[in-house]
Amino acid sequence: MPYRIARSMKSAVLLALVWSVTLFAGCHALDGGGDDDPDPTSSPTTTGTPTTTTTTSPSPTPTEPPEEEPALSAAAIVNHTTEANAGEELNITWELRTTTGEAITVDRTEIVWSNATFTPAQAANGTIEGRQDSVDAPGTFNVTFTVDEAGTVYVRAHAVDGDTEVWSDIIEIEVKGGGATGGTTHIVSIGMKVVSVGGQTFKTGEGQTSFFEPQNITITLGDSVVWRNEDQKGDVEHSAVDCPDPAQQQDACTDPPDWRTAQIDVGEESAPITFTTAGTYWYFCDVHPGSTTMGKPTASQNQIKVVAPS
Ligand SMILES: [Cu+2]
Asked: What domains can you pick out in the chain, each with its CATH number?
């Protein structure tokens, strides 16, 4: 009998021990490895909760910057023509830069210009030059183009990479002269005139005096010339015709002309001839091709010198 009691007590103790261990293990699992966990190093694997690091507290010592992906950061015009004549080449050099300086491939870059000041939003209306796709950045790019009309030209460099769009500052280029509508119109008188000096009558356009007055003129690129027939000798038509190389002429200019007026009646003016290329031009009257002063341009006579604006 005592043996049986002892044996049953032993079973009860054993049962209680197993029960308490089981209970403890259950609680341990439920409480998520709480603060009373004797081994903190084991908690991350048992709990699965995020481990906080020391980055939330301010640190007096400089820390390593986070790893950064290189991205398109800027466009900059680094060299450009500042002044040109209409029709002359403008040259623009620009750079693309990245946030880290590391190389990436950028979707596209280009130069955009306009005759009016523009904002990036308006630049879609500008003229695109030198567009290149899939370019390396950082990198340097160049484009040459011409603008035919005089005025201030506003230029920006532009680049797009995915959702990133960058614009350079605006630079200005002064384009001078040129253009059929620009410039000054000069009037040259054609024909013999009768003048009275000191009671005596003289005829101009004879001998050493040109039929064209002024005899030679200097004009600015983009200017025009109109010839007016002011002949006082009678009803005589005249003209003004380009003579490309006066040095080669004997009695009259026979080179094919680059330009010519129609024949001009007395009292009438020619249509304007506009000069858009700098240089020296000679002309004559092909109604009177043998005339010394009208039909034979020389190096010093019947000359139009076209110069770039100063
Ligand atoms: Cu003539």
From this structure: 72-176 (2.60.40.10), 185-307 (2.60.40.420)
- Ligand 1 centroid–CA 17 distance in Å is 136
Q: From the CA of 233, how far away is ligand 1's center (Å)?
A: 12
**93 band by pLDDT with thresholds 50, 70 and 90:** very high
- Pick 151 or 167 by higher pLDDT: 167
Residue 14's pLDDT is 43
Q: In the structure, how many helices (H) and strands (E) does the chain have? A: 2, 19
Sheet of strand 139-146: strand arrangement: 72-80, 89-98, 139-146
Q: With CA atoms as reference, report the closest residue to 87 among 178, 163, 13, 171.
A: 178
> Ligand 1 center to residue 295 CA distance, Å?
7
Ligand 1 midpoint to CA 200 (Å): 25
pTM of the entire predicted model: 0.43
Asked if residue 2 has a cis previous peptide bond (ω within 30° of 0), the answer is no
Measured in Å, residue 291 CA sits from the centre of ligand 1 at: 8
| DSSP E strand stretches across 200-262 | 200-203, 212-213, 216-220, 224-229, 241-242
Q: How far apart are the C-alpha atoms of 294 and 286, rounded to whole Å?
A: 8
Q: How far is the CA of 256 from the centre of ligand 1 (A)?
A: 18
